[in-house]
User: What shape does this take?
Amino acid sequence: MPDINTPVSFPPELEAVVKAKLADPAFTHKDWSSDDLQSVRSFIRQHYRVAQRGKCAYCKRILGKQAAANCHVEHLLSKSLYRAFIFEPKNLCAVCAECNTVKRSQETASAPVDTLNKNAAKLYPRSADAFKVVHPHFDVYDEHIEILRDRYYVGKTPKGYFTVGACDLNAHMREFGWRPEFVDEGDAIRKASVLAAATTQADIKAAIRDLQDTLLEF
Assistant: This one.
C-alpha cells in the first residue's frame, strides 16, 4: 500500500480560506508563507506528520514532532510551476528540511501538465505513472528505493533513481564516506561495488539481495 492512504481534508473554515485564495487572481506561490495561511499550513503539516508516522516522505528520517523547522509541507508538483495544485490534497506531504531545501522546484511530472489549458490545469494526475518522483499517495516506497543501514539509498527503479538524485539522499555518504564498520568489511565493499556497477533491474535486485545478506552478518 502507498505510504499515505488518507489525503488531508480541510474543515469548513479552512476550506473557505483555500477557495478564497484560489479565486484571487493575485494569489501566487509566493504567498504560500503569508500569515493568513498559517492555520492552513499547520493543519496540513500535522495531518501528514501523523499519516506518514513521523517520517519524511523522501528520506524516511524522523520529522520534527511539533515545530515546523524540520517538518515542511511539500508540494510534489512544485507550487511555483502548478498554481492550481497548491492546495490539492494529493499534491501535499511532509518532508524534512533537508529534502525540501534540496528538491526545491524540480519538475517531477513525467509529462508536464499543460498549465495553459484551463481544463487540464485543474485535473491533478491520478496515477503513479504520471510522476518521475516516488509519490507517497500512489507508490510503495520500498518498491523503488532500498535503504541500507538506515543511511545509504539505492534506486531500484527509474523513479527510485530520480528521487535519490532529486533529494541528494546520499549526500552524507558523498561528503563523509561510508561508516567505518562498513568500510572495514571487504566483502561488503566488493558487493557494494557490484551493486553500483549493475545496470539492469534484475542485476540490481540480485546485487541488493547479496549485499543485504552480507550486512546481516555484521
Remarks:
- The chain has nine helices and four strands.
- The two ends are 31 Å apart (CA to CA).
- Residues 51 and 174 are 31 Å apart (CA to CA).
- The longest helix spans residues 201-215.
